[in-house]
Design a protein that fits this description.
alpha/beta
């Protein structure tokens, strides 16, 4: 089968590497807003070199922005019409697997969803069978599950449990 790769650019200067990842075949490019010096430059490069436009062909190339819990979502407003999805970090300390879920993200998601009801939202960090229902109820469309799968004694059973929760909220893969 054909895999679609999302590249999470947790690097200091994503402007320097975004093009190489697109050329390597990444279908989703995720940039952390706190690490970028000139996000408009990334938007312009993707548009000029690769024809990316919001919603044009998300299966071919989509651009997402990740935002930390302590960052004000107002920083995203100038770019809303150029990005395809938002990723909220569900943990306070990023880059370390197994961090505890930070419930403050739920309020941020709800407020953002109210302001931008059509923007797809994903969450990475602290996603578990316990937190998934609250995240989906808040309006999250995609869950990035790490530790809950890597540390489970029964991967298939845990995957089915996540799929069952997602289906209750109308999310299907």
């Amino acid at each position: 089968g054909h895999f679609k790769f999302e590249v999470d650019l947790m690097v200091e200067n994503p402007e320097a590497t975004v093009g190489a990842w697109v050329e390597a075949g990444a279908a989703k490019i995720l940039v952390h807003i706190e690490s970028v010096r000139n996000f408009q430059k990334i938007i312009d490069e993707l548009k000029e070199k690769y024809g990316h436009e919001k919603g044009f062909a998300p299966d071919l190339l989509s651009l997402g922005v990740a935002i930390n819990i302590d960052t004000d979502t107002a920083i995203l407003e100038p770019y809303i019409n150029s990005i395809d999805y938002i990723q909220f970090m569900g943990i306070a300390r990023i880059g370390v697997q197994g961090q505890p879920f930070d419930t403050r993200v739920l309020r941020k998601i709800e407020a953002f969803k109210k302001a931008h009801p059509d923007m797809p939202i994903q969450v990475d960090g602290g996603v578990s069978l316990t937190t998934a229902p609250d995240l989906l109820a808040a309006g999250v469309t995609n869950l990035c599950v790490g530790s809950a799968l890597l540390k489970t004694p029964d991967l298939i059973e845990t995957m089915h449990a996540f799929e069952g929760i997602a289906e209750k909220y109308g999310r299907y893969r």
